[in-house]
Amino acid sequence: MIGALLFAVIVTAVAVVTELVEYVPRVFVPVTDWVVLPWLVLFSAVFALTATVVVGYLLYRRYEDTLTGQWNQLSIWARAIVTGAVCGVAVAVGLGIATAGGIVTPVFVLVGPVIAWPIATVLALRRQRESDTGDDSTSTLQSVLIKSGYAQVKLLQTRTLAGIVGFVGAVLGSTGVLALLAWLPWVDVTLTVLQTVVLAAFLWLVATVLVYNRYESTISDRTDLRIVTVLSTESGDARELLLKNEGVAPIELTRAKIRDTKRDLYQFDGGVALEPGQCRAFEVPGAFLLEPNEAAMDLPLGYTLKQGGEHPIVYTRTGDKFVLRGSSDAPGRDPARAEMPSPVGLGTDPSPQD
């Protein structure tokens, strides 16, 4: 509830600064003839809506297993129709609010849901049928994201990329608001430079937080890749990590990056893929730190910024994150090592910390 209260305060403050609160109608309380000011109407509406969403989410998380079981018992058609109906109701509520504010005519409240329901039903039906086919092939969009390096950068520079994407969203959102205000014939308002900057900053903050949370929710630590042992090289100025794929699917390490516990970043030379159960040696320089690193920097107000890690981490080009657990010792050279292919090297110069 505290989060809903803070969000309502921020939205109301932005609306007051940009003078958009003037478009919120006053509300007259029956019998008492009290007049509720526009900013209070906006604050109450935003708080009530946000609180409803938060409570609904918490209830869903609490009864998630029960609700999921009941939902999965429905047929594909029933699930698609229910999804379409929910989208239709959401569109009706949105258009109803727009009608109350005088933005659209009441006819849109009837036409909008009639159009939105069948479209949402068809899209939901198509998506559920595709998920039930069990097709794990990479889509065109995923292929583009992998080839462009976006999937890997999302793991390495999560905060930076979220800020960039949020900035782009803020620019597009601000442009859309300005275009909408200029296009609507019944709206006679022009935002000042300060109002535009405040609006863009608010959209940037909201978009960055949403994108970052989205990234974090999709990133999971995998442990299929494991350090079997650490071998010393003949020269003595490097070590070899013997990695094993303990999963059931191949792991593509072409152009993958590995970060040691000092958070220095290296890239694998050449291309290699580990089949399930396969082992392969990777030569790392002497500066590559395997041991847990508890280094941290003190920040104001008693906070600390962790600068080390507990385990080395591998980031693949396909967007997978593997936490390398296992041995951190350096025994002598194993005679059986001679039967394996030559070790895969790493880039000589580590990239700086993010």
Structural commentary:
With 354 residues, this protein is of the alpha+beta class. Among the domains are: 140-219, no CATH class; 221-339, Sandwich (Immunoglobulin-like). The chain contains 9 helices and 15 strands. It has helices at residues 2-17, 38-62, 64-72, 76-100, 107-132, 140-147, 150-156, 158-183, 193-218; strands at residues 27-29, 34-36, 221-222, 225-232, 238-245, 251-252, 257-259, 265-267, 273-274, 279-285, 296-298, 304-306, 313-315, 321-323, 325-326. It has a 5-stranded mixed β-sheet, covered by helices on one side. The chain has a 4-stranded mixed β-sheet with strand order 10-5-4-15, with no helix packed on it. The chain starts with a helix and ends in a 28-residue tail after the last strand. 18% of the residues are buried.
Q: Quickly give the CATH architecture of the domain at 221-339.
A: Sandwich
CATH class of the domain at 221-339: Mainly Beta
State the order of secondary-structure elements, H for helix, E for strand: HEEHHHHHHHHEEEEEEEEEEEEE
Strand order of the largest sheet: 3-14-13-7-8
| Share of helical residues | 40-55%
**End-to-end distance:** 34 Å
Label the structural class: alpha+beta
Count the helices. How many?
A: 9
Average residue-wise pLDDT? 76
- Envelope shape: elongated
The strand count comes to 15
